Amino acid sequence: xxxxxxxxxxxxxxxxxxxxxxxxxxxxxxxxxxxxxxxxxxxxxxxxxxxxxxxxxxxxxxxxxxxxxxxxxxxxxxxxxxxxxxxxxxxxxxxxxxxxxxxxxxxxxxxxxxxxxxxxxxxxxxxxxxxxxxxxxxxxxxxxxxxxxxxxxxxxxxxxxxxxxxxxxxxxxxxxxxxxxxxxxxxxxxxxxxxxxxxxxxxxxxxxxxxxxxxxxxxxxxxxxxxxxxxxxxxxxxxxxxxxxxxxxxxxxxxxxxxxxxxxxxxxxxxxxxxxxxxxxxxxxxxxxxxxxxxxx
Length: 297
Prior knowledge:
Layout: H1 6-18, H2 21-28, H3 32-46, E1 51-53, E2 58-60, H4 62-88, E3 95-99, H5 108-116, E4 124-128, H6 134-139, E5 145-150, E6 157-165, E7 167-172, H7 218-226, E8 232-235, H8 236-241, E9 247-251, E10 258-265, H9 271-286
Parallel strand pairs: 3-4, 3-5
Antiparallel strand pairs: 1-2, 5-10, 6-10, 7-8, 7-9
């Protein structure tokens, strides 16, 4: 069997995600007949059927499901390699910093002030993304350094912890649970998170990325919390910076603390990245421990 080509994988992924040859062809900007031939050629090359085709629907076979999972990983790796090669082939003109807005422990302005004083500093650019997106942004070569919440997917990355803080439950001030001074996860078992999934007694992270997210920005999330539609697990620094009369923040005894870290790709040799990491670690070390949030209402 000859090696698969990137073009073949892109064709396959388009059909697998659309489950419709016409829509996949339109997505790829090509006619349907050559796409159908390409998929048949791919199946012959692999010696397995990737799709079950009827006049009414297209479905993935078990082999197709496996290839879809691995093809996505392979295409991400190819894209990331291209980004990294382009970046390595040209002198960097800026430092790209990935983060989720407001999830910086309040440190970012002071980190940037310290970073700018380093002789190796470059002009910076903020690369904003959703919860949990920053590690992949680094792997894809779309950012040089990131501020991330841990635990994280650290494949191919190095990191240094900056600060650890409690995680609080944000709930409507009118919620009966707001009358308590401390909660446990079991108390919230019938509540829903911003991702649209119910609170899980095994919850271990302050926030969860989710495809079914009902809100993506803090302003949207807090509006939903105020109406009693959802609860939100927020790092204490986020609670401190977002006091609202309609929201009560309460400690959750069995919810682990969260850690903010600075992360960068393994093997990075950029003096600007090193300067930012130095500035982040020095700033965090000089920062006083956040005051207790147990009485925030």
